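# step 3/5: fold
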Amino acid sequence: MPSSINDAVAQAPGAAPAADAGASASPTPATKLKQPPAVWAVLAASVVAFMGIGLVDPILPVIGQGLNASHAQIELLFTSYFLIIGVSNLLTGWVSSRIGAKSTLLVGLALVVVFSALAGQANSVGEVVAYRAGWGLGIALFISTSMAVIMSHAAGGPQRAVTLFESALGIGIASGPLLGSLLGNESWRAPFFGVAVLMAIAFAVVATSVPRTPKPTVAERTRLSEPLRALSHKGLALGSVVALLWNFGFFTMLAYTPLLIGLGVYELGAIFFAWGVLVAIAAVYLAPWLLARYNPTTLLAVVLVIIVGLLLIIGAAHDTTAIIVPTIIVSGLPLGVGNSLLSNLLFGVSHTDPADAAAATNFIRFTGGAIAPFLAGVLSENVSAAAPLFVAAAVVAVGFVVLVAGRRLLVAAEAPGSVSSKLTEGDQGKAERELAAA
């Protein structure tokens, strides 16, 4: 997934050149809402794509009942999704550098339509898990390219494009659980069919509204090995390990707690709607405000400690709904800030090509963190309901130790001119697009 404007553009060499940065200094009121059809088409599709992050949360218990699935089997819905997104980060640049931006968008949307519809008609949890993986591949291809297309066509310059993209992100993250609960109350299959229909509409709109981009030249093509070579940078490699350990806690919170709460579809939808709103607000507004005042590694260390504490609270009070529900909702704030901080650190510490650095770190953090949901299901069945939370807290605590011990390797991200410092100059919240991988 792209973690910055430059990353998004670099992953789609077929996209048209972005508007001049100076055009964003003082956009007129007309340019704020008056955008080309291509921009609105991609934004609408992005909202639906981001819904996939929390769509499944409210219907996890219903899926378990409908398919007679264990907790570990249900959690594979997230593990397969996150795993394929992680691996796909090694492929998206390679694909878009050969077929162009618009074709990559359409291929991604088509994959989501096909695999979400297949998931809706599945008769076993294994089938749903497999189709969810195909869904993740489509999301990875679409999101890695969508920001580049928005940047290429948005009126008002790059900053206006970022604001529009962040708005789509926030709407999608928050509305996913709502859509899942409304449709899931009828049947666990309904949300999957709903996404297929919405993405089919998005496919038609993008196909007719986004101009065809020139086919990339041979010189613009990306090699598959380039992202992995970026990990030779010690700071980037260490930051990726911290991100992996962070994602373990994040994915446990997102994927396991719906099973722990034990409430109905509507209640779960409301809870994770509130959680998603806080995640988006924290990433878009709170993180830039904090970064204007403190250095990112110190902030991230504090956030890691907070997440450890919240996981321990949920684990200790796992059978007390009155405690764990507000704790889960409140966790959206530090989780949103933490995702933004991580992306800025990872992008700022490396001197390699932005697209290769982002692809490499996302491969590590999502592929490695994907084990968390499945492990949570296994632990809940064989140890206790609280065990997944305590294990996640321990893993995030290790992330804190690694961060503190290797802080000297991350100093580049704290230097003037780094991504984290530039964020306070106008590119607010650009790193929260990492959430699109979940």
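# step 4/5: annotate
Residues 1-31, 415-438 have pLDDT under 50 and may be disordered.
# step 5/5: archive (pending)
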